[in-house]
Amino acid sequence: MSIGEGIFYGLVFLGIVYLYIQTRDRWNWKKIVFRLFGAIIGLVLIAVSIDYIFDNFSRKSFIDNQKPKTITGMNGIELGGKISDVIFKTGAIKDKKQEDVYFFPSEDNKRFAIDKESKTVRSIQHICSSNDLTYPNTYSPKINGVKCGDSEFDIFTFYGREKINVFCNKGGSGNLRKYEAVDFGVRYFLVTNKVQVITIHYPDDLKRSGDAVWQKCD
To answer: How far is CA 119 from CA 55, 71, 113, 209, in A?
Structure first.
């Protein structure tokens, strides 16, 4: 406490004492003190209640945010979006090698595939760039708590091991694996235990998908 604060509190105390001396015969100081303390206790109880409610609300929101959810979009694209609308908003260009695949003109690591009949977005892909891997918190999309550069441990920690199907490449390098959170429509490709590709699908599409290149890891 500074000297100035000490003087201020001292003057306040003396002022209260002086007021009491001057009014003790006219005012019911016992009732005044009782009401004052009652008001203070009431304010404290209100503050504690508000803090308790806010704390529980914040905790519930935090817990809810830590639960995996079905993902319907990434990089500003939503599953089921009309290809004409997506092209209008992003300027997406058709891949010459794959007629049902499109990519962003200035960021070809952001891609999506369409359903040929309905002309709507069927899946969305993000290939991790060097910026995504170097500055993941700034550049990489975070899909259910997992972002570019994260490891198998991060995936299992967020989803739970029982929610993830792990596939190994049959004839390829042993450092490549595919992790599918089928119930949530998310697929991660890891190279040397780091997320390098993230894809979003309809959960039913992942359930039906089969690929001769991949097999469940032992």
So the answer is: 46, 20, 10, 20
